[in-house]
DNA sequence: ATCCTCCCCTAC
DNA sequence: TAAGGTAGGGGAGGAT
């Protein structure tokens, strides 16, 4: 929106040294002096240093936290990429997969303090001649706006814990147990519970370190967390951006000078250009950066490196167990297709698995495999054993979870230089609406894609593929065609023929069950499915799915990209290593799981109302000993949920409900093979783009309707007071401060330190200036209002930087769903700017309003209601 | 009809 | 050995 800026008179809007910034600096000075009452600042040795503590250390994590605060450093509860990792020892499994170049002994901290200066951390590396990984340097990013945005975002937030650590979990659990049960703590119980929490690798869920150990190694956990992280990253980038993209100019000149420019642009329907970007076999590509000699060979990422057959475990019966899986699948397919279940032919992942002690017996799963491996028939998710059978010279490489995150960062930030109309799908995949971007660049789609892919490959060392289309479905299918390392443009003239040949299984949302069902109806391709009527599809597949399929097989997709995501549920699940002897062990684990969910909820600042417990219980026919080591085996699955009257994030309530749900099931703890704890949301969102959101006095649940087209016209006006009972899934943004008065029905358990200064009425306690790269968000909104008032009264011409700052702040409030505050501040701003009556101040108001309304649309799908 | 609850499916 | 998580959409069937 550079144009927006240009319409302001130049003199009043030059950047830098704005009124607000000066004011904020003063405020921060005040804060740091009054913050001194809480943390006494002894030195600034650790200025610019941030640490993350991994495992048991001396001094303890708590102590290190305090030391960092006293000496000017930053302590992170969750690991961030710039952190020094403080550790005294690390489990082998962890060491294998992480970059060790910044793993430092705690003595570095204590010695530095003793010496009163920051000592060279390299002298304190835990692993001396550590094979330092060629880490990508985020600061190399060219776009300056990204650089600044990202650095502050990294400091300010990090909702996702990629490296889950439970510094407090033992303590918490012991406290909980001490309070109300007779389960002994680890040191009083012999045998099973006797675990050295520091250097023993957790084997089963009985071990207090198990969750952390497991999550550190779980690819699925990482995939999930990374996905959530980058969705949030896009949210954050958008919140912080002024939507000017200086890097576009560079890209444009690069494209023009490359001389390949095609003049004629390809035409897309409805003028939209959607690009889908997907890294090629992501985990493998990242891994190959360190193993270039394996390029061109069949490669798989897996935990198992091992070739040698293992000794048999007592009681394992692969045949019985695998047959149970196949029977169940056959039964399901029989039901779905109407074919007799014993006549159904289908391929299963338990096919071709060798005996436990055979060369091909490994049940380790392949997370990702190279195209050379795929050529041999190997697929992601396949067991290692059968894969080796297909390709005996399959090379394996280990996971590199840090690497995935780094590459993903680079990928996202590369795109974000040019546009923020991004919908994050996962860490290695996204949709981008390029309509506006391409208009601005005035280059062909082809040249743009070529340049973009080249830049991504240069920066990450990993190839990606892109597809273009006029909607998300088309672009996605185009990417599939483009792979590997290619690009494809599904122009509107191609769509019809292209769709005709697409396999139904390739449609997003059509998995094994659906495609089997469709096949039993006699259809394998989109072209063939097009002969079916909407009604028939709906009868067989349900209303929604049928309608979606009807559209999809014609290349239609009415769903727009969603740039801003809102989370609706939080859960934690472990279906591996669950082996309990007693109920107490089971409940203890559920407490840990609840604590995990609770801590995630805290990070997302959400409350939830509906708590679901999922249990996997060994099926009666299934062997007690599972085929896969520590796996869940063949199980029955149970889901039980409770609906609380009030949304909460109280760990004790969650724990209590979860355990009570579990108790009701009367499961023999020895038969338990998996557990999950899920807290769901209940914000309901109103459709209705016409009716603006007005802040509700009594309810913070904003009513919105999800289905955009089957328009439901519920007016927001009738939604005073408590929301209808019917609203389900309440996960509400945690409120505090003023909102407590507005949100009568929500209980918020404050987990703030007790010594809250009474003068500070508001929720957000000001942070210290040095940990506060972004001014306004760290202030209470009332402080912001004061600042705003002072600015308006200053008699000076408004500057662009101040205007932007306010706009950004308010947009962030929108994203945080602090609509009440936005409402007050916007009306305040409107009133005061209009009182002043100068055009330039009116422009300021309009500028801010535009940003706020854009955010409102992104978050709620409708505009904020403003007085008059 | 419309809900609630449990369950299934899909995707990464 | 092995690390089978997580969020979201939606359907079936009973309760209201």
From TrEMBL:
<dbReference type="InterPro" id="IPR038401">
    <property type="entry name" value="Rev1_C_sf"/>
</dbReference>
<keyword id="KW-0238">DNA-binding</keyword>
<dbReference type="InterPro" id="IPR053848">
    <property type="entry name" value="IMS_HHH_1"/>
</dbReference>
<feature type="domain" description="BRCT">
    <location>
        <begin position="41"/>
        <end position="126"/>
    </location>
</feature>
<dbReference type="InterPro" id="IPR043128">
    <property type="entry name" value="Rev_trsase/Diguanyl_cyclase"/>
</dbReference>
<dbReference type="GO" id="GO:0003684">
    <property type="term" value="F:damaged DNA binding"/>
</dbReference>
<dbReference type="Pfam" id="PF16589">
    <property type="entry name" value="BRCT_2"/>
</dbReference>
<protein>
    <recommendedName>
        <fullName>DNA repair protein REV1</fullName>
        <ecNumber>2.7.7.-</ecNumber>
    </recommendedName>
</protein>
<dbReference type="InterPro" id="IPR043502">
    <property type="entry name" value="DNA/RNA_pol_sf"/>
</dbReference>
<keyword id="KW-0479">Metal-binding</keyword>
<feature type="domain" description="UmuC">
    <location>
        <begin position="274"/>
        <end position="511"/>
    </location>
</feature>
<dbReference type="GO" id="GO:0042276">
    <property type="term" value="P:error-prone translesion synthesis"/>
</dbReference>
<dbReference type="GO" id="GO:0046872">
    <property type="term" value="F:metal ion binding"/>
</dbReference>
<dbReference type="Pfam" id="PF11799">
    <property type="entry name" value="IMS_C"/>
</dbReference>
<dbReference type="InterPro" id="IPR012112">
    <property type="entry name" value="REV1"/>
</dbReference>
<dbReference type="GO" id="GO:0070987">
    <property type="term" value="P:error-free translesion synthesis"/>
</dbReference>
<dbReference type="GO" id="GO:0017125">
    <property type="term" value="F:deoxycytidyl transferase activity"/>
</dbReference>
<keyword id="KW-0234">DNA repair</keyword>
<dbReference type="GO" id="GO:0005634">
    <property type="term" value="C:nucleus"/>
</dbReference>
<feature type="binding site">
    <location>
        <position position="429"/>
    </location>
    <ligand>
        <name>Mg(2+)</name>
    </ligand>
</feature>
<keyword id="KW-0539">Nucleus</keyword>
<dbReference type="InterPro" id="IPR031991">
    <property type="entry name" value="Rev1_C"/>
</dbReference>
<feature type="binding site">
    <location>
        <position position="278"/>
    </location>
    <ligand>
        <name>Mg(2+)</name>
    </ligand>
</feature>
<feature type="compositionally biased region" description="Basic residues">
    <location>
        <begin position="707"/>
        <end position="725"/>
    </location>
</feature>
<comment type="function">
    <text>Deoxycytidyl transferase involved in DNA repair. Transfers a dCMP residue from dCTP to the 3'-end of a DNA primer in a template-dependent reaction. May assist in the first step in the bypass of abasic lesions by the insertion of a nucleotide opposite the lesion. Required for normal induction of mutations by physical and chemical agents.</text>
</comment>
<dbReference type="GO" id="GO:0006281">
    <property type="term" value="P:DNA repair"/>
</dbReference>
<keyword id="KW-0227">DNA damage</keyword>
<dbReference type="Pfam" id="PF21999">
    <property type="entry name" value="IMS_HHH_1"/>
</dbReference>
<keyword id="KW-0808">Transferase</keyword>
<dbReference type="InterPro" id="IPR036775">
    <property type="entry name" value="DNA_pol_Y-fam_lit_finger_sf"/>
</dbReference>
<dbReference type="Pfam" id="PF16727">
    <property type="entry name" value="REV1_C"/>
</dbReference>
<feature type="region of interest" description="Disordered">
    <location>
        <begin position="688"/>
        <end position="729"/>
    </location>
</feature>
<comment type="similarity">
    <text>Belongs to the DNA polymerase type-Y family.</text>
</comment>
<dbReference type="InterPro" id="IPR001126">
    <property type="entry name" value="UmuC"/>
</dbReference>
<dbReference type="InterPro" id="IPR001357">
    <property type="entry name" value="BRCT_dom"/>
</dbReference>
<feature type="binding site">
    <location>
        <position position="428"/>
    </location>
    <ligand>
        <name>Mg(2+)</name>
    </ligand>
</feature>
<dbReference type="Pfam" id="PF00817">
    <property type="entry name" value="IMS"/>
</dbReference>
<dbReference type="GO" id="GO:0003887">
    <property type="term" value="F:DNA-directed DNA polymerase activity"/>
</dbReference>
<dbReference type="InterPro" id="IPR036420">
    <property type="entry name" value="BRCT_dom_sf"/>
</dbReference>
<dbReference type="InterPro" id="IPR017961">
    <property type="entry name" value="DNA_pol_Y-fam_little_finger"/>
</dbReference>
<keyword id="KW-0237">DNA synthesis</keyword>
<keyword id="KW-0548">Nucleotidyltransferase</keyword>
């Amino acid at each position: 929106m550079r144009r927006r800026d240009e319409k302001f008179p130049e003199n009043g809007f030059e950047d830098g040294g704005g009124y607000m910034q000066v004011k904020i600096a003063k405020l921060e000075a005040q804060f740091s002096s009054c913050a001194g009452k809480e943390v006494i600042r002894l030195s600034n040795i650790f200025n610019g240093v941030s640490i993350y503590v991994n495992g048991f250390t001396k001094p303890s994590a708590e102590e290190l936290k305090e030391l960092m605060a006293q000496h000017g450093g930053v302590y992170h509860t969750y690991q961030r990429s710039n952190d020094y990792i403080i550790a005294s020892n690390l489990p082998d499994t962890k060491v294998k997969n992480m970059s060790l170049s910044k793993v430092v002994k705690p003595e570095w901290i204590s010695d530095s303090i003793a010496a009163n200066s920051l000592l060279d951390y390299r002298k304190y590396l835990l692993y001396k001649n550590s094979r330092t990984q060629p880490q990508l340097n985020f600061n190399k990013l060219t776009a300056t706006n990204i650089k600044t945005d990202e650095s502050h975002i990294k400091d300010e937030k990090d909702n996702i814990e990629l490296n889950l650590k439970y510094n407090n979990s033992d303590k918490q659990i012991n406290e909980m147990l001490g309070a109300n049960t007779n389960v002994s703590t680890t040191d009083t119980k012999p045998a099973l519970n006797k675990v050295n929490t520091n250097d023993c690798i957790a084997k089963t869920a009985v071990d207090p370190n198990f969750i952390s150990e497991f999550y550190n190694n779980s690819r699925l956990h990482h995939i999930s967390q990374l996905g959530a992280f980058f969705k949030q990253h896009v949210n954050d980038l958008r919140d912080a951006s002024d939507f000017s993209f200086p890097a576009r100019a560079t890209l444009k000149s690069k494209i023009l000078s490359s001389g390949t420019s095609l003049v004629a642009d390809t035409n897309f329907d409805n003028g939209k250009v959607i690009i889908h970007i997907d890294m090629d076999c992501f985990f493998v590509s990242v891994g190959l950066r360190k193993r270039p000699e394996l390029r061109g060979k069949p490669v798989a990422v897996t935990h198992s490196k091992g070739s040698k057959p293992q000794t048999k475990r007592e009681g394992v019966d692969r045949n019985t167990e695998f047959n149970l899986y196949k029977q169940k699948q056959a039964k399901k397919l029989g039901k779905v297709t109407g074919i007799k279940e014993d006549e159904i032919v289908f391929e299963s992942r338990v096919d071709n698995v060798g005996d436990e002690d055979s060369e091909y017996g490994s049940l380790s799963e392949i997370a990702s495999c190279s195209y050379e491996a795929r050529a041999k028939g190997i697929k992601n998710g396949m067991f290692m054993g059968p894969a080796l059978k297909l390709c005996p010279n399959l090379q394996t490489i280990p996971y590199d979870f840090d690497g995935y995150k780094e590459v993903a960062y680079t990928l996202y930030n590369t795109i974000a230089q040019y546009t923020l109309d991004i919908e994050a799908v996962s860490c290695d995949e996204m949709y981008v609406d390029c309509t506006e971007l391409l208009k601005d660049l005035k280059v062909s789609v082809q040249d743009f894609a070529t340049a973009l892919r080249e830049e991504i490959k240069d920066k990450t060392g990993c190839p990606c593929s892109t597809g273009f289309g006029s909607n998300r479905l088309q672009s996605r299918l185009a990417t599939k065609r483009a792979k590997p390392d290619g690009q494809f443009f599904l122009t509107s003239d191609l769509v019809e023929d292209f769709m005709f040949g697409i396999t139904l299984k390739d449609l997003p949302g059509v998995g094994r069950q659906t495609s089997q069902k469709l096949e039993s109806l006699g259809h394998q391709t989109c072209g063939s499915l097009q002969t079916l009527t909407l009604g028939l599809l709906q009868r067989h597949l349900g209303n929604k799915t049928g309608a979606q399929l009807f559209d999809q097989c014609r290349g239609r997709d009415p769903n727009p990209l969603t740039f801003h995501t809102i989370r609706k549920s939080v859960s934690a699940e472990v279906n591996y290593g669950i082996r309990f002897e007693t109920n107490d062990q089971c409940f203890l684990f559920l407490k840990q799981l609840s604590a995990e969910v609770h801590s995630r909820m805290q990070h997302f600042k959400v409350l939830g109302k509906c708590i679901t417990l999922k249990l996997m219980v060994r099926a009666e026919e299934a062997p007690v000993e599972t085929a896969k080591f520590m796996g869940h085996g063949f199980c029955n699955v149970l889901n039980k949920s409770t609906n609380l009257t009030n949304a909460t994030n109280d760990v004790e309530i969650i724990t209590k409900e979860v355990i009570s749900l579990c108790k009701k099931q009367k499961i023999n703890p020895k038969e338990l093979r998996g557990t999950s704890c899920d807290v769901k949301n209940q914000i309901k969102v109103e459709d209705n783009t016409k009716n603006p959101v007005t802040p509700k006095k009594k309810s913070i649940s904003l009513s919105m309707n999800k289905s955009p087209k089957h328009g439901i016209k519920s007016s927001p006006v009738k939604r005073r007071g408590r929301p209808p009972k019917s609203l389900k899934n309440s996960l509400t943004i945690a409120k505090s401060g003023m909102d407590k008065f507005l949100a009568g029905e929500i209980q918020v358990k404050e987990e703030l330190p007790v010594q809250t200064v009474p003068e500070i009425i508001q929720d957000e306690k000001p942070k210290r200036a040095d940990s506060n790269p972004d001014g306004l968000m760290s202030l209470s909104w009332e402080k912001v209002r004061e600042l705003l008032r002072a600015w308006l009264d200053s008699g000076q011409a408004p500057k662009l930087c101040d205007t932007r700052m306010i706009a950004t702040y308010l947009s962030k409030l929108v994203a945080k769903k602090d609509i009440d505050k936005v409402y007050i501040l916007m009306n305040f701003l409107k009133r005061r700017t209009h009182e002043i009556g100068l055009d330039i101040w009116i422009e300021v108001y309009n500028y801010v309003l535009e940003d706020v309304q854009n955010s409102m649309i992104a978050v709620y799908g409708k505009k904020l209601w403003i007085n008059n």
